[in-house]
């Protein structure tokens, strides 16, 4: 179940115990991107666990000082930890982590990587928008299928927007949405955004007009979603919101699938309430093979890959190791998901 990568030394009396870091469900072979070296240089003993299921994960991590965990974390797992000081994850979204309050009470820092995938997801957002506007997928399939040049076989496309001068609406205006805004400015898109947690000066800095959610939906030719998944954002976009959108509008979702009521979206696309959708995420992943979305020419779907790139894939492996090494050597990490815990700790 476990493989010790760097054993602690059976030293002399009085020798300080090396902090133990347990890596559960790692991406690929742990260490191939320098993550093992980062932890060893910080004086850590590293144990890679192949734990299957929660019980094995709890047993593997019970006495860990630091944990790197890519899977879902339950409240029960949090409660089982006896001496953990930091849990590091390799994702932006934290919707699969439960018991953050327990971690805070125990003095456990939870870290994620909110900045690693910003450029990748912003680029993918623009790729989906362009693919939908230009009907890239059905037209490319038409050409590959021999349709180009066949008499009477027209291109399978709907109306093509002129992107220049149109309006992009951003729901959420965090790091990724701001990166999208920078890219959209190059297309001369007008931009509006909704985010009640961001100050007015941030919107102004990016040349984006701050408006209520309803106005984003009503005024935009393209609506792009950039919110975390939490109870308040689950099904944030349902049929009432879709009916506020223009009939020729396109919805882009690169955040989390359950932010959109998928049944409502399917109905809206089938009935012409909205024109199209570009989705990197779906309510159920992988998507059901019989989903109507898969047969719609006005929908582009990618397999939750917006964050992917060779650089990001390596960085998502190194960064959790850096965060664990920082905390276990008495330093504040770059990203803290539960900032209240810092009040309990004396990190430099």
Q: Could you describe the 3D structure shown?
A:
It is a single chain. The protein has 348 residues and is α/β, with parallel strands linked by helices. The protein has twelve helices and 13 strands. The chain has helices at residues 35-41, 54-61, 75-80, 100-106, 118-133, 136-144, 175-185, 200-205, 213-219, 239-242, 262-271, 310-328; strands spanning 2-6, 20-24, 45-49, 66-69, 86-88, 109-111, 167-171, 190-194, 209-210, 222-225, 250-253, 276-279, 299-301. α11 (262-271) links the parallel β11 (250-253) and β12. The two termini are 35 Å apart.
Percent helix: 25-40%
Helix-strand makeup class: alpha/beta
Unreliable sequence segments: 6-12
Number of domain units? 2
Distance between the termini: 35 Å
Mass-distribution shape = elongated
Radius of gyration based on Cα positions: 23 Å
Give the ordered list of helices and strands: EEHEHEHEHEHHEHEHEHEHEHEEH
Mean pLDDT: 94
Number of helices: 12
* Largest pleated sheet: 7 strands, parallel
What is the number of E strands?
13
CATH topology of the largest domain: Rossmann fold
Strand order of the largest sheet: 9-8-7-10-11-12-13
CATH class descriptor of the largest domain: Alpha Beta
CATH architecture of the largest domain: 3-Layer(aba) Sandwich
Question: Which key features would you list for this structure?
Answer:
alpha/beta, Rossmann fold, 2 domains, six-stranded mixed β-sheet, 12 helices, 32% helix
